[in-house]
Design a protein that fits this description.
This protein is about 65% helix and about 10% strand. It has about 100 residues and is mainly alpha-helical. The protein has one domain. It has a two-stranded antiparallel sheet with strand order 1-2. Helix 1 crosses helix 2. The protein starts with 6 loop residues before the first strand and ends with a helix.
Length: about 100
């Protein structure tokens, strides 16, 4: 999509300065949800841990990175399974593709 179709939005994570982003309009909702998830967890953990804002934000970043890696691994396993299944079906059907 061309840059001229993008819109500029501002997000704020924790108590940091606002960040300007150029996003496709159909992706803005995901950016807003991500901002909300980070801020919700940051607020919860600021109340839970006796720590600085930057330390809590680092914990939040680590948590999301860990969750991303778990999801990535699970998706890779599903993809490998589906690839194997597809090959088995092709073999049963005598497909040459």
């Amino acid at each position: 999509m061309a840059d001229n179709n993008k819109r500029k939005i501002w997000i704020q994570l924790a108590d940091t300065n606002q960040i300007a982003l150029s996003v496709n309009p159909d992706e803005e909702e995901n950016y807003r949800k991500a901002e909300e998830l980070v801020n919700t967890l940051w607020t919860k953990w600021m109340n839970r841990f006796n720590s600085t804002s930057s330390d809590v934000l680092a914990r939040v970043a680590f948590q999301f990175a860990r969750l991303y890696l778990e999801a990535y691994g699970e998706n890779r396993e599903v993809n490998d399974f589906l690839t194997d299944l597809n090959q088995q079906v092709d073999a049963l059907l005598g497909s040459d593709e």
